[in-house]
Amino acid sequence: xxxxxxxxTRFFSNNTILPVxxxxxxxxxxxxxxxxxCCGGIKIFLGALSFVYFAKALSGSYLKSTITQIERRFxxxxxxxxxxxxxxxxxxxxxxxLVSYFGAKLHRPRIIGVGCLIMSAGTFLIAVPQFFMGxxxxxxxxxxxxxxxxxxxxxxxKSQTPLASLEKSxxxxxxxxxxxxxxxxxxxxxxxxxLRGIGETPIQPLGIAYIDDYAVEENAALYIGCVxxxxxxxxxxxxxxxxxxxxxxxxxxxxxxxxxxISPKDVQWVGxxxxxxxxxxxxxxxxxxxxxxxxxxxxxxxxxxxxxxxSEQSKFIIEESKDRRKSYLxxxxxxxxxxxxxxLKNLFGNxxxxxxxxxxxxxxxxxxxxxxxxxKYIEQQYGQTSSKTNFVIGLINxxxxxxxxxxxxxxxxxxxxGALGAAKLSLGSSFFGYLLxxxxxxxxxxxxxxxxxxxxxxxxxxxxDYEQALFSECNSGCSCSKNDWDPICGENGVTYVSACxxxxxxxxxxxxxxxxxxxxxxxxxxxxxxSSAVVGPCQKGNECPKMFLYFLVIxxxxxxxxxxxxxxxxxxxxxxxxxxxKSFALGIYTLAIRVLAGIPAPVYFGVAIDTTxxxxxxxxCGGRGAxxxxxxxxxxxxxxxxxxxxxxxxxxFSVAVxxxxxxxxxxxxxxxxxxxxxxxxxxxxxxxxxxxxxxLIQSTYWPQKETRL
Length: 709
Fold this sequence. Notes:
- The chain crosses the membrane at residues 40-59, 80-104, 110-132, 220-250, 270-294, 353-371, 391-411, 423-443, 547-574, 586-609, 638-661.
- Belongs to the organo anion transporter (TC 2.A.60) family.
- By secondary structure, this protein is mainly α.
- The chain is built from 26 helices and 7 strands.
- The protein has helices spanning 2-65, 67-73, 78-102, 108-127, 161-175, 177-181, 186-200, 203-214, 217-247, 273-288, 302-305, 312-321, 326-338, 340-348, 351-372, 374-382, 386-414, 419-438, 466-469, 544-564, 566-575, 582-598, 600-610, 632-664, 686-689, 693-706; strands spanning 488-490, 495-496, 506-508, 515-519, 531-535, 613-618, 624-630.
- β6 (613-618) and β7 (624-630) form a beta hairpin.
- α4 runs antiparallel to α10, α15 (351-372) packs antiparallel against α24 and α16 (374-382) packs across α17 (386-414).
- The protein starts with a helix and ends with a helix.
- Residues 1-38, 144-149, 156-169, 314-320 and 668-709 have low confidence and may be disordered.
């Protein structure tokens, strides 16, 4: 009986324990399933967000690669192209506050999907003018456009039939001028870029915040690193796409390519700039599709459920679902608004923050202006085609920038650098970067010999007004226009603005194979015998290819050097601000960079570059078009000089930052507290030194990945 009772007791005990074991098993099983569901969902979102970052980086860099193409296609000056380029930042600023605030209350993945649709619509809108403007017309003498009539370029007899036919043709052109002059199709490009800015706004803050809310805490930094890596790849493909499209003629598929009388080396050449925007628009649509099928919420990881920091969206849900807290929330909002001015005063009372903000604004002014017009500078200074220029930037410069950003972060981590060390690294990066930039002044090409513009018809350097200098004794008997730009290369190595101004009496052939004979201005000084010329400008000097190679090497090293200081400078900004003011400080920083650098820099750089133009094109209905020829020396001094002056002034502000930090730092801790006293900013745990992922992406995306090229 005793044994039996013990067995019963044991059997009863086992039965009572079994339900507990099953319950525990079920709990572990459900937790495992929830973890798998969470990980799977966040990884799908991560993949979709990475593709969106790739799409928006591709379209943004492709716009940079088509700056010169848009300028020529719409016959507009560089200053106006700068306004078009800056319209993206204007669109972004229009709704950034609304999206950042209300986005947390709504379905964030679908808002990102809507942003992708708007972004693609803007990209398509940029390409629309190509289909309504008609075929591209470049300036060419009739005999070079497959004409069956051999017209003399130098029309000495003003009563001859060819001149009359030309006048009739000009009359027909003038008849359709009213409609063309009122179109201003470049406005569609501006509006499209504005829409791109609006569409890209929710992708950055909402996407990164979603990852931060639902990713395992230790994996959040890795996921954001993946997004940033893919974002770096986007500009590479964007410039390579720009290189490919620049090789294709603008009206490819609509005209007979054999009839085209210009080549990609001609300054009037316009590539198929619109084709890349159609491709980028399709990619943006495809990138937005997954977000329409992603849930509003994902299961929170177990490690985050008991965390004191809840997700941004869950805070809104909890607060709004409890009516008893409404009055409390209203009071809290009023109190928060009342703290705005003191917070602003506290922020601008921090000398390190103000000095670093000024340094950043000046530096990004120099970098944004430099990168926006870098393709134009390479084309005009070294005589390279748009295709080769974009290829070089995409394949060489951008990887150097990515490697520089990575190196800066690696140095910070390996040597455990504090705020003072970060300031030194950032200053050293800027100093040596701009010092290398100074050497580019010696790596330029001389002006091409263009009769009447850079040299006289007698071979001496030009000093007089070019409009009067275009005419000489050798072409005095010809009826030439000073507004034409139809360059030919004489056998003496001098470029002439047109066959008429070269005094050519006859021509043979058509299209690219046209040869001009009996050109009275092409004769050498030793011989008065007239010579021949061929279509297109003469090549730059023999030293120019070598200078271009030197430029590429120094440009890559400069890009890397300047990029190394990006991460340390950003960390310096974060570590010298009170924790509760970080988001506010980063918002002010981003706003200042975009308003005071992103928008104005392309405009005034364009205005400065326009002052170096020697020969403006003329529109069909009259008025100034795009620039055809720049003064190489003046362009080099203006472009590099403006970049260097802004960068140098920013270095002085960086030196002031370092001086303040040295003055107020303690021997034990080379950091500065947010209130300007010695102390505690750097004594926080290493974990606190990592920035919030949303803040990191928001401040570092466009300035460092799109400007430090």
